[in-house]
UniProtKB/TrEMBL annotation:
<dbReference type="InterPro" id="IPR001547">
    <property type="entry name" value="Glyco_hydro_5"/>
</dbReference>
<dbReference type="InterPro" id="IPR017853">
    <property type="entry name" value="GH"/>
</dbReference>
<feature type="domain" description="CBM2">
    <location>
        <begin position="27"/>
        <end position="136"/>
    </location>
</feature>
<dbReference type="InterPro" id="IPR050386">
    <property type="entry name" value="Glycosyl_hydrolase_5"/>
</dbReference>
<dbReference type="InterPro" id="IPR008965">
    <property type="entry name" value="CBM2/CBM3_carb-bd_dom_sf"/>
</dbReference>
<feature type="compositionally biased region" description="Low complexity">
    <location>
        <begin position="139"/>
        <end position="164"/>
    </location>
</feature>
<keyword id="KW-0326">Glycosidase</keyword>
<dbReference type="InterPro" id="IPR012291">
    <property type="entry name" value="CBM2_carb-bd_dom_sf"/>
</dbReference>
<keyword id="KW-0732">Signal</keyword>
<keyword id="KW-0378">Hydrolase</keyword>
<dbReference type="Pfam" id="PF00553">
    <property type="entry name" value="CBM_2"/>
</dbReference>
<dbReference type="InterPro" id="IPR001919">
    <property type="entry name" value="CBD2"/>
</dbReference>
<dbReference type="Pfam" id="PF00150">
    <property type="entry name" value="Cellulase"/>
</dbReference>
<comment type="similarity">
    <text>Belongs to the glycosyl hydrolase 5 (cellulase A) family.</text>
</comment>
<keyword id="KW-0624">Polysaccharide degradation</keyword>
<keyword id="KW-0136">Cellulose degradation</keyword>
<feature type="signal peptide">
    <location>
        <begin position="1"/>
        <end position="30"/>
    </location>
</feature>
Amino acid sequence: MHALRKALTATAAALVAVVGSVAVTAPASAAAGCRVDYTVASQWPGGFNAAVQVTNLGDPLTSWDLRFSFGAGQTVTQLWNGTVTQTASAVSVRNAAYNGTVATNGTASFGFNGTFTGSNPVPTAFTLNGVACTGAPVVPTSTPSTSPTATPTQSPRPTSTPTTTPTPVPSAGPVTADPARLVAEMGQGWNLGNQLEASIDGMPSETAWGNPVITGALLDRVKASGFDTVRIPVSYLGKIGAAPDYTVDSAWLARIQQVVDLAYDRGLYVVINMHGDGYKSVSGAWLICDASGQEQIRTKYQKVWQQVATTFKDYDGRLVLESMNENFDGQYGTPTEPCYSNINAYNQVFVDTVRRTGGTNASRWLLVPGWNTNIDYTTGGYGFTIPTDQYRSSAIPSADKRIMISVHYYDPWDFTGTESGATTQWGPNVTDPSRSATWGDHVHMENQLKKVHDAFVVKGYPVFIGEYGSIDKTSADPTNNRYRADYARTLVTLAKQYGAATAYWDNGYNGVYGFGLFDRQSATVTQQGIITAITGS
């Protein structure tokens, strides 16, 4: 979605990410062990956000108490997904009522805001339930000596995990070859919007637009609500170094991978893209199709995707890479030929680059958009071309496609996005026609989805409606949520009929003109009616 349609109040000025992994044990009465990932996800003068994830490598836990000490006088000011006690530098975090039970290889997560003066080092030692860190699972002394000493196998993640954490076992799951099966498996998706694509003055930060640090508890709630796929928009912007290497900041890339893992390790499909780098309205944007120096732009684009694709090359087929977002020349009118040619060129560079990194990237599904992800301008003969796929694995049968087409759907914008209380109802069940748009009804919706079906699905290219949704206008019309649910239900139903998977746009904002379905701070549901309309859960 265009940044101007989704920006929230900025609360942070910069981001500094540090990933630390420490193994800790549970009480010695049982086989124990765990990994702690402590991340400073964003930092500004005198304050910071941190995310902590504990992976239990031992016997199941029914409650937990994680303790550590700050090394430079930091103070926790606000914590979510747990309760905190701090005495001087010593911190104790106990589970909340809903996340105390942690299965073997399961995780518990919490986040907090804190203050600091001078420096903000990551804690170096942890204890879990009173037992000091050991670096490996611990078994009680009564356990037979033949008990394995190696770290138990975790939920599969690839070997490209940052070297600051123990190397997990890579997943060797196959890529789903059949397009219809892929669409069915991706099913109903949800966007983690306004997070990893958020930025201030050209510098990405997951809390820059007012959302809290992303936690496993949030992704647990998303999955429990019935969603099958999480789309994670990503901006790189000022995290990209200078020519000729265009090196992506390692801490930012590690944080992207951490967030991907939060969804991937829960068995969800995951889609990641390059999001805000192609908007003229975003400070520091550079992937601009009508800018001068297109050769340099393509080189930079290639270098960034090479690094990202290499990071994720061993993830299995549940990871889908998307070349870009709503990339266009800043105008919503008819696309210009030179600009469309450049967008096609970006898509081709993306496909070639990802395939050449090898691993699962040689065969995974890749997602590409047309002009502004607009259905008419992608299907209607305005210049969109599907990239060739010459570097894909030779093991893929020649008739198989491994490229998906990305479109977005927000018709009619009067209902879905215009920040006004004038148009609050949609569909055949409206009770007040004066509150309904004069265009964009359910018949129009079906006609648009039939266009992508006829242009792509029948040719073996599945379609992903990567964004759709509508803003909250209940302040103007208390019945608005009924029509928001009708809109979502109709879109999802028609998408299934015409061979497309879907992902609802959620910007994390609840309230007047918000798209939010969840409270990300508390990891709770805020719009169950719309979620039920989408997932049936």
